[in-house]
Specification:
This protein is mainly α. The protein is 57% helix and 5% strand. α2 packs across α3.
Length: 130
């Protein structure tokens, strides 16, 4: 080896030995701290995600209701002279039955005679009836 190399190597070994090496206990504490931080971050992220889903569902519900009101109540007074919504059929006993093929709402036959205008509007929105 060239002159001075053993001295340099010994110096490096001494410096390396003087550096504090992490103990197993220090490593375990550091890993525990990192684990806690990761768990906290995941919990925060999940809570934020859940909140975003709740907000999205609330907005979708409100928008859906507004659109249904616009579609089935609208800005115009509905002509109820026939007694039933458009395409609904009035039976002899005065019940309005939904269209047999084109209706996708949840309501069945119902008596609408005598309902107040606001009740008819509520029915139209709830039952998706024009």
């Amino acid at each position: 080896l060239p002159d001075g190399i053993p001295t340099v190597v010994n110096s490096i070994k001494k410096r390396f030995a003087s550096i504090d090496q992490p103990s197993a206990a220090n490593e375990a504490m550091a890993l525990d701290r990192l684990k806690r931080q990761a768990e906290e971050r995941i919990s925060q992220d999940l809570a934020e995600h859940d909140m975003q889903i709740e907000i999205q569902q609330a907005v979708e519900g409100k928008v859906s209701m507004v659109l249904r009101r616009k579609k089935y109540v609208g800005g115009c007074v509905r002509d109820r002279t026939s007694g039933c919504p458009l395409e609904w059929v009035q039976s002899e006993d005065g019940l309005c039955a939904p269209p047999p093929t084109s209706y996708s709402g949840l309501c069945g036959s119902v008596k609408l005679a005598g309902l107040a205008p606001h009740e008819l509007e509520s029915f139209s929105v709830k039952c998706m009836a024009d």
